[in-house]
């Protein structure tokens, strides 16, 4: 095991999709592996103050010690799921099968099962609320965490087939599989409105992941549905304020930590490319041939590098964000999602002297 002072700085977890494992990258080398996490076709990770939590497609929820890279606890909470969220006290898992939402504590004890009769997605905590979407019923539910998760607001007819969501400044932004629009639920007064930003769209390849699209300075940077474009929408006015033509159909849109660079990957014929955009003026800095199949990407803590998972190339490729040159190639089998251990967790662990509490 690496000495503590190197244990978390510069550490990334990379989903090894075929194996259902996480590869551990530390200081640009593959230094370990976390195995037996479940179906790896869709594994997502969130970090609390001291631990990481991973959820597999077939519903295995794993609590991970980031200091040792070991699974501390594991519980199967679903048969089919793609979404969960954390608060200070709770973990909430939104399931497709069974059609329910499960609330657990941080020791993975089930506290509440909420049966919805639908596929559930877009789950988020905000203050004393747990909010999520019902995919086929075109509905948002808001529950009060302080009152035994009682439903306090139901919003119907929100738009066709909600697929993802995020929280921004007290608003729950709901995105849809069909059409170029998104919904804004004000979580202070529960008013709801639809913002339309383009032509009627329909996805043609892989589904754009709206929960990763970036919101910055009251503007949403959106992968256009069915178009080779990045759209920028002012959240205050609802107006389209910018648009960037792209080489392919965008999937993930992410900001660098310093908010100066936007990175985009693609489905279809451009799935081997990565685009870097100047966030200030929306000029394309570089279109990179970044691998044989770019699945996901993650910026370094200082924004100087971007880590790209090359699924067909069985590697994580690291590029300099200033000139687009490849600086490292790290062998990883069938990589997809890349998750950087966050700054606050690293600083917290330093304070604890490397001990996880």
* CATH class value of the domain at 77-196: Mainly Beta
Q: Which term fits the overall shape? A: globular
CATH topology name of the domain at 77-196, in short, is Methylamine Dehydrogenase, Chain H
Strand content: over 45%
The tally of beta strands, per DSSP, is 32
Note down, in words, how this protein is organized.
There is one protein chain. With 357 residues, the chain is mainly β. The chain has a domain of 120 residues: 7 Propeller (Methylamine Dehydrogenase, Chain H). Helix content is 3%, strand content 54%. It has one helix and 32 strands. The strands form eight sheets. It has a four-stranded antiparallel β-sheet, with no helix packed on it. Strands 4-5-6-7 form a four-stranded antiparallel β-sheet, with no helix packed on it. The protein has a four-stranded antiparallel β-sheet with strand order 8-9-10-11, with no helix packed on it. The N terminus and C terminus are likely disordered.
Blueprint (SSEs and pairs):
Layout: E1 11-16, E2 21-26, E3 29-34, E4 44-47, E5 52-55, E6 60-65, E7 70-76, E8 80-86, E9 90-97, E10 100-105, E11 110-115, E12 120-126, E13 129-134, E14 139-144, E15 150-156, E16 162-168, E17 171-176, E18 181-186, E19 192-196, E20 214-216, E21 219-223, E22 229-234, E23 240-245, E24 249-255, E25 261-267, E26 273-278, E27 284-289, E28 294-299, E29 305-310, E30 315-320, E31 326-331, E32 335-340, H1 343-351
Antiparallel strand pairs: 1-2, 1-32, 2-3, 4-5, 5-6, 6-7, 8-9, 9-10, 10-11, 12-13, 13-14, 14-15, 16-17, 17-18, 18-19, 20-21, 21-22, 22-23, 24-25, 25-26, 26-27, 28-29, 29-30, 30-31
């Amino acid at each position: 095991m690496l000495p503590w002072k190197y244990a978390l700085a510069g550490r990334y977890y990379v989903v090894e999709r075929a194996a259902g494992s996480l590869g551990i990258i530390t200081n640009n080398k593959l230094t370990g592996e976390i195995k037996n996490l479940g179906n790896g076709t869709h594994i997502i990770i969130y970090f609390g103050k001291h631990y990481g939590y991973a959820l597999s497609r077939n519903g295995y929820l794993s609590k991970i010690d980031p200091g040792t890279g070991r699974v501390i606890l594991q519980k199967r909470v679903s048969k089919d799921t793609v979404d969960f969220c954390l608060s200070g006290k709770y973990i909430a898992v939104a399931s497709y099968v069974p059609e329910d939402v499960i609330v657990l504590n941080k020791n993975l004890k089930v506290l509440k099962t909420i049966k919805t009769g639908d596929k559930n997605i877009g789950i988020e905590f905000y203050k004393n609320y747990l909010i999520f979407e019902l995919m086929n019923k075109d509905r948002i539910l808001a529950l009060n965490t302080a009152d035994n998760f009682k439903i306090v607001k139901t919003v119907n007819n929100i738009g066709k087939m909600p697929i993802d969501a995020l929280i921004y400044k007290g608003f729950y932004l709901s995105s849809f599989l069909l059409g170029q629009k998104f919904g804004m639920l004000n979580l202070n007064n529960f008013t709801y409105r639809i913002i339309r930003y383009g032509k009627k769209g329909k996805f043609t390849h892989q589904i754009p992941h709206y929960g990763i699209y970036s919101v910055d300075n009251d503007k949403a940077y959106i992968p256009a549905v069915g178009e080779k474009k990045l759209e920028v929408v002012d959240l205050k006015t609802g107006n389209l304020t910018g648009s960037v033509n792209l080489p392919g159909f965008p999937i993930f849109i992410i900001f660098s930590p310093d908010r100066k660079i936007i990175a985009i990957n693609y489905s279809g014929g451009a799935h081997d490319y990565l685009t870097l955009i100047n966030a200030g003026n929306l000029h394309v800095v570089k279109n990179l041939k970044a691998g044989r199949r770019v699945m996901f990407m993650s910026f370094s803590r200082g924004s100087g590098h971007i880590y790209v998972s090359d699924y067909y190339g069985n590697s994580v490729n690291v590029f300099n964000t200033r000139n687009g040159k490849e600086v490292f190639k790290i062998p990883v089998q069938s990589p997809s999602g890349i998750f950087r251990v966050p700054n606050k967790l690293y600083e917290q662990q330093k304070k604890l002297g490397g001990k996880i509490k």
